[in-house]
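dumping the sequnces here before i forget
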Amino acid sequence: MKREKNTWTRALKAALGTLYSMTPMLLAVIGLVGLFQTYITPEMIHSFFTGSALYDTLIGTVTGAISVGQPFISYIIGGGLSQQGLSLYAVTAFILSFVTLGVVQLPMEYTLFGMRFTLVRNLLSFLFSILVSVMTVWTLEVLL
Amino acid sequence: MDAGGAAVTVSEREKSFGRILLLIVISLYLLAALFDPASAGQALMKSLSVLKNIAPVLLIVLFLMTLLSAYIQPQKIFHYLGRKSGLKGWGIALGGGVLSHGPGYLWYPILSDLRARGVNEGLIVAFFYARSVKVPWLPMMASYFGIAFTVILTFYILLAAVIQGKIAEKIIPPQSTI
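..and the predicted 3d for all of it:
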């Protein structure tokens, strides 16, 4: 029983130590989130789109990657863009990259996982945001 | 029960990078405060609100890291989440990704910890992508874009998570921190 308690205490201390060491990085990322949320507004995101499906899908992926916030924000922006006549490809790419890519968290990802992992993961996420959006809209069009 | 293994420590390089990044962000706030105090204050309030919201998730992360460090044997991790874990590993990665809550960066410490203990890189990549299925927000997505869109997108996200994981497995050497 005592041994069990010691194991738990030692593990808790170690976990606290790890999280404490990461605190500056975590605070930096949270600080960046506040800055991005203030300076990159939904109106600014709306202004990037042109109406061309191909170009807008790419823009949707990039703007999703630089946007930050709760996922529902991407649905609200995406819903608004869709009502304005923007292609569903672009809207889907935007809501996907909104949650899978994150410019603000790149420094932390690079520090903890290394350059190669960060590069590979983000490049794959970028490409697959486009691919998944195309496949989703195609499937939807075939089925409905 | 024996301890699973010492917690993976954060290297000096990681610590100093974190401090430098924090200094840069503080400088950005100071610059913003100088030229646009209202927006700087707004950004700070938003950051504080994020901090308040993520506190419960941080507790979950702390609990999981403690559990991992205390009771989970490295051999077991290797068995369930290593390169030869098979379908079980992919299931755990996808399920974990879908169920994990809060911002992705909160999960970085525990994932880098798991990676250092031998977890397959492909599974970590799959976990990250599967996180884009946000169960609590699915009804809202369905109300905006329809049920068919939500179901199809969810299916493709999970499929894409596995494909990306498989590609990453081939490209990223185990324990790559270069």
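Chain A has a mean pLDDT of 88.
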